[in-house]
């Protein structure tokens, strides 16, 4: 399902199982944990994965199960030369080679996550807010309405990331999905019949490579543990989509500046090199998403570049 769920769950399992080992031998190698595909014959009532919480919930459930195993194995701990040797020796200790004598420890356990953390007497729901900030620079062609994203820089609050490499990809991917929302993906219907008209890639435009920022950087807020989250982390999938609104706002600023510049050329008040000092309120334009070239051109307005240049040439030098 994405989210790097398998990798994060493997890491969570290793972290929890490693608590059996002496501190100087932690953690177990990742190769000590093998993941199987999710199946209803093993977990018949698995929970939903909405709101980008699949990874967090699965990690917590695995850690609950792993804690049970650690508690059962602790009385049989056999310390070896390293973590893996200690683990193997301990597992061997619960399987004495005494003919048909049964094993002394159950080496399987179930864990579940019900949306809360804490002990039975003081459980608290996992509720928190995710924060992010983005700055985008865009370029707008006033003649065609075509647009480019020159640069985007994102700062995202991931708490203590479960896996920074995965969460970085999640933030980038969510932002690109958001670009589709604010730049190109428009749902259209027939006003008379209600028929869905944008029902194929000919009419419904998902993000294309030319919309990706030419400079694109993502960083995580440092030293910001989520004290109410699982392993002090925060979700990184869907929330980061909202950072794409920075591109829409930048295009709105560019469109307003374009309107001011075009009007200035037309009346001769802009001559020679044009210096944009920022659009005034009177030139502000509402720009609904998606900001397609047609919509951008519509709010800038039609004008004759020849007439504008002629007016500019007649102005004072």
Shape: elongated
What's the mean pLDDT score?
Answer: 86
**Spatial order of strands in the largest sheet:** 3-4-5
Largest beta-sheet characterization: 3 strands, mixed
- Cα-atom radius of gyration: 29 Å
Fraction of residues in H or I helices: 25-40%
Strand content: 5-15%
Structural class from helices and strands? alpha+beta
The count of strands amounts to 5
Terminal residue distance: 63 Å
Order of helices and strands: HHHEEEEHEHHH
Contiguous low-pLDDT stretches (5 residues minimum) are: 270-279
Number of helices: 7
Key structural traits:
single chain, 317 residues, alpha+beta, two-stranded antiparallel sheet, 7 helices, 5 strands, 33% helix, elongated
Write up what this structure looks like.
With 317 residues, the protein is α+β, with helices and mostly antiparallel strands. It is 33% helix and 9% strand. The chain is built from 7 helices and 5 strands. A 3-stranded mixed beta sheet has the order 3-4-5. Helix 1 runs parallel beside helix 2 and helix 5 (245-267) crosses helix 7 (305-314). It is elongated.
